[in-house]
Amino acid sequence: MLIQDDGRALLPTDLEAGETCHVTLHITLPREPGNYQLECDVVHEGISWFSDKGSDTWKRNVRVGGASALHPSAVGETPTLGVGALSLSEETSGEPPEPLPMYGIDRTAVEQLIRDNGGTVLHLEIDERCGKEWVGYRYFVRKA
């Protein structure tokens, strides 16, 4: 694996089971030309990758070369990607997606809920994966 968690894109709306949508995903290409496999998965931030729950990932063989853009190719062929950043996009409305709403629960309320249900917090770590402006915690808990 060359770059884990490189490209990120928000879903444009909530999706029901079986629904699909298109997103634009910007990724960093490897520095060295050659043949690679691009693999994409959906993540529920801080919870789980969908593939860990049985969903298939999206995989494509790609060839990094000297061109400046993604070249269209016939079905079954390996597309050639330009050196630099790659933009894989599908037709969209052109409007940026709305921010993913996040709702906080006070840390003391979460710890009290854990105690009320027979749990003990073994370890607490600050989680900044949603940005430094959002204070989050990861709780490691044991139920008695």
Keywords:
single chain, 144 residues, mainly beta, three-stranded mixed sheet, two-stranded antiparallel sheet, 1 helix, 9 strands, 31% strand, elongated
Give me the secondary-structure topology.
Layout: E1 25-28, E2 34-40, E3 43-44, E4 48-49, E5 58-64, E6 80-81, E7 85-88, H1 107-116, E8 119-127, E9 136-143
Parallel strand pairs: 5-6
Antiparallel strand pairs: 1-7, 2-5, 3-4, 8-9
Report on the structure:
The strands form four sheets. The protein has a three-stranded mixed beta sheet with strand order 2-5-6, with no helix packed on it. It has a two-stranded antiparallel ribbon with strand order 1-7. About 17% of the residues have low confidence. The longest helix has 10 residues. With 144 residues, the protein is mainly beta. The protein has one helix and nine strands, in the order βββββββαββ. It has two domains: 100 residues, no CATH class; 37 residues, no CATH class. The radius of gyration is 20 Å and the shape is elongated.
Low-confidence stretches: 67-77, 80-92
Count helical runs: 1
Tell me the strand order in the biggest sheet.
2-5-6
The rounded Rg comes to: 20 Å
The overall number of domains is 2
Largest sheet: 3 strands, mixed
Total number of strands: 9
Quick structural overview:
By secondary structure, this protein is mainly beta.
